Amino acid sequence: MNVVVIGTGYVGLVTGTCLADSGNDVTCVDIDAGKVERLKNGEIPIYEPGLEDMVRRNSAAGRLSFTTQPSACVPGAECVFIAVGTPQDEDGSADLKYVMGAAEAVAPYLRKNAIVIIKSTVPVGTNRLVKRRLDELTGRDVHIASNPEFLKEGCAIDDFMRPDRVVVGSIDPDVAETVHELYKPFLRTEKPFLKMGLESAEMTKYVANCMLATKISFINEMANLCELVGADINDVRRGIGHDQRIGFAFLFPGVGYGGSCFPKDVRALRATGKELGFETSVLHAVDDVNTRQKLVLFNKLARHFKNDLAGKKIAVWGLSFKPKTDDIRDAPSLELLRKLIAAGANVHVHDPVAVPNVQRVIGDAVTYHSHQYDTLEQAEALAIVTEWNEYRNPDFDYILHKMKSPVIFDGRNLYDLNRMTKLGFTYSGIGVTR
Ligand SMILES: NC(=O)C1=CN([C@@H]2O[C@H](COP(=O)(O)OP(=O)(O)OC[C@H]3O[C@@H](n4cnc5c(N)ncnc54)[C@H](O)[C@@H]3O)[C@@H](O)[C@H]2O)C=CC1
Ligand SMILES: O=C(O)[C@H]1O[C@H](OP(=O)(O)OP(=O)(O)OC[C@H]2O[C@@H](n3ccc(=O)[nH]c3=O)[C@H](O)[C@@H]2O)[C@H](O)[C@@H](O)[C@@H]1O
């Protein structure tokens, strides 16, 4: 099929590349000329394992190309995906200016019977709003489909190629069937293609993200309570997870969820409720718990140093909002760094890939290191924010020898409390402490 994807961010680039990989002719469009230039040279602007190779391979095969001009590709397209950002507006609701802008940019070039597929996460009602605008601009009854994306950064290609399900909302069932053709190569096992109405598809995306965010805030609240009652959340997690009704997924306690989606999507769904005079109390609590959880490492450090962090050398491992990405949008690390800087601490940080992004936001108020151990020279405490694999099994003897005082605040429960205590560390995890 001839496909156009508008937006070459995490979602657009992965969608376009994976669809090209299954034999479609794909053109990706972005308004950012610099990004398009880099992509044309086979350079990808984000860190996503495996993506660069796939972009190069499919570009070389002539199935994947990049442009800034919708006029150059939309006229030939049977399907036009819109995968632009939907950031949080000041009141928490989703800002639709990029989605509407993209729709308006493609409208003049849409061929008869082309399908516009909205992949961006958009509030209920947006697909109909976009359709109305497209109908107005083209003078035709434009086909529209809502196709929310469920991929995770860091394993985006695998998630796209092996989805748990594909959701498509449409007015006309034939439109959904055409979209199904695009997805059939990725749904060869028992995984379902779920057809539904536009509103249900839009809502499905928010409910999925809010459910996952709820699980995380719930387990974080329980972890904090475990510390107070002297229980170990790792044992409790296993104790509940074996109950098949509960399970293990997304119940790892930590420093709060970050990233470009959970925080904004929880707030956007709250805003939808508010607009309709409906109080979403659970979502309010989820957001509230998460805001507090992002401060959990700072509060532990402040308590340990009796509220005097001035001049204390603190090492921080992990800056991206989760491993295998350089994305720092709403990352808990930023909250920690800002609080430590404000308290006058001498902060030394490491991250395998996110340092350039953090440098752009935090500047030289902290010291960046290219090796994790270099942060520890005479450090008085180590805070672990992101569970990169290389932090899981470090040389603890070396760390003991390097640090001024062997104190670890582990925001991801990478280590075992008893082992750490035996080794001579003062150690505190999330929901695991002495
Ligand atoms: N990042 C993720 O893991 C996931 C994101 N989503 C949703 O997908 C959407 C896109 O997210 P990301 O890919 O992270 O966004 P992003 O911010 O990384 O990329 C968006 C891209 O769209 C481009 N753009 C904006 N207006 C344009 C226009 N008129 N024409 C052409 N290009 C335009 C921007 O220059 C940018 O390159 C959002 O609604 C997000 O909530 C859904 C699932 C996963
Ligand atoms: O809409 C989106 O953008 C995407 O949002 C999330 O994907 P992503 O944000 O890439 O990353 P996750 O792996 O879900 O992690 C989100 C945050 O939750 C935290 N988390 C996750 C799992 C867990 O058990 N505990 C926990 O604290 C992570 O550290 C991270 O900060 C969803 O998992 C995707 O399905 C969805 O498509």
From TrEMBL:
Reactions listed under catalytic activity: UDP-alpha-D-glucose + 2 NAD(+) + H2O = UDP-alpha-D-glucuronate + 2 NADH + 3 H(+)
Catalytic residue positions: 261 (nucleophile)
Pathway entry: Nucleotide-sugar biosynthesis; UDP-alpha-D-glucuronate biosynthesis; UDP-alpha-D-glucuronate from UDP-alpha-D-glucose: step 1/1
Its EC number(s): 1.1.1.22
GO molecular function (one): UDP-glucose 6-dehydrogenase activity
Domain UDP-glucose/GDP-mannose dehydrogenase C-terminal residues, every copy: 315-417
Gene3D superfamilies named in the record: Cytochrome c1, transmembrane anchor, C-terminal (1.20.5.100), NAD(P)-binding Rossmann-like Domain (3.40.50.720)
Sites where the protein binds NAD(+): 30, 35, 86, 121, 153, 264, 329
Class in the EC hierarchy, top level: oxidoreductase
BP GO annotations: polysaccharide biosynthetic process; UDP-glucuronate biosynthetic process
Binding of substrate, residues: 150-153, 205, 250-254, 258, 322
Sorted UniProt keywords: NAD, Oxidoreductase
The family this protein is said to belong to: Belongs to the UDP-glucose/GDP-mannose dehydrogenase family.
Protein name: UDP-glucose 6-dehydrogenase
Species per Swiss-Prot/TrEMBL record: Planctomicrobium piriforme
